[in-house]
Fold this protein.
Amino acid sequence: MEVLIATNGFKGTWPAIEYGAWLGGTLGLKVNLLGVTETLNPAQIDDHHPLEEVFSRAVEVFERNGLTYSLEVQNGDAEEVIPRKVQTGDFITVTGPLGRPQIRRWLTGRSIHHLMEHISGPILYVPESRLPLRRALICVGGLGYEVTAENLAVRLSGLVQAHITLLHVIPPMDLDYPTVREVIKSAEHLVDSETPIGRALRKGVEMARAAGQTAEVKVREGNIVEEILTEIKTGEYDLICMGSPYSTSALRQMYAPNVAAEVANVIHGPILIARHKRED
């Protein structure tokens, strides 16, 4: 596995470059910097290209940290170029806001949503860098979506001795099924229950213990997105980790929210999103 840092030269991607360099150094991975040259205004053709300064600063950071790195520039729209590059290897993709105009976001959606849909590997979206990493929040839904993100987050937290919190939100229940009743009844000691979410939480605790860490378990009840955002606001977390369904256009999205996408819309700190895989 390697780290792929993607930028189109927009200044808002610089935190992602810094974070990607830190990630590569912490995990001992090669760092690949992908610059995307997008269509320029004809009046800007003779001007200093925005990628030049970004690449120059990035190389200084990479060399100062003793990283093995490569540099690459491709032409096109970043939302198309980045997923295409990811398909050529095994990457953790690190990127940030691409500076899209508001009207483009209205018409075509946010860039992070497009990347989530077309990239199957882990994505670190970094609108704002928060280092050092001291507190990580891992959202555990109990359906297995979080497994890929959870493994990577626990490994990373163990290397830097960051505190881990496992969060599960019990949503409002309209259906009276035995498992639903058991989850609600066991809310105060859910981690000890034999429900699917109880087993998932215990697995997360055991994973943290194997990495030399302890994991705190928190359970909230209410709207999933709202409760996650409330926990983020009150917990002073440096990294948020979440799973995702197979695709933001999956049939499930017709009747249920993509929680990871909705949280990514709002928070300002780094968020690690990894798509659910059947083999997990």
In short: Residues 10 and 98 are 6 Å apart (CA to CA). DSSP finds ten helices and ten strands in the chain. Residues 42-46, 246-257 have pLDDT under 50 and may be disordered.
